[in-house]
Amino acid sequence: GNVTLLEQEAQKLSNETKASVYVVTTDSSTPASQMAKTYLADKVGAKNNGVVLVINMNLRKVYIWATGNLKYYLPSSRIEKTLDIVQPELTDNNYYQAVSGFFDQVSKYYQAGIPTSRKYSINSETGAVTFHRSFQPFTDRPHKALQAVPSSSPW
Questions:
Q1: Interatomic CA distance for residues 14 and 89, integer angstroms
Q2: How does pLDDT run across 119-133, given as a tens digit for each residue?
Q3: How far apart are CA 136 and CA 71, in angstroms?
Q4: pTM to 2 decimals?
Q5: Considering 14, 47, 63, 64, which has the largest number of Cβ atoms within 10 A of its Cβ?
Q6: Beta bridge partners of 21
């Protein structure tokens, strides 16, 4: 059924992103944002790669939280765009489409890369992201060399 299809989609996304992928539905009175953060921390640890979609049926709230390297791919602007796809489907009780849409958006943003002007590299085994620090030389200034010679030198 649909649950099996979603499990397969989740596994494919997890393999692609090298992150744990979770969807949680709850009737709890705990706010979705708090539940998402606690759930993901419990499942993968604070710094490991993961993403969770929490659907709180009781409070009618939905929340997405990403940790580890995945948080670079899913800044708040991309999470908001993903929720713009997920929320209307939930409102119409299209749970399969909502969750599938969530997976599609995460995959799309992962493939699009990290939205930054900084240079970075990705470890293909772990998905670890390394940002490279660099600077632009001042091309409008003449280059100066600094020279130091030992004081005992005849120069």
A1: 23
A2: 888 888 888 888 887
A3: 27
A4: 0.81
A5: 64
A6: 51
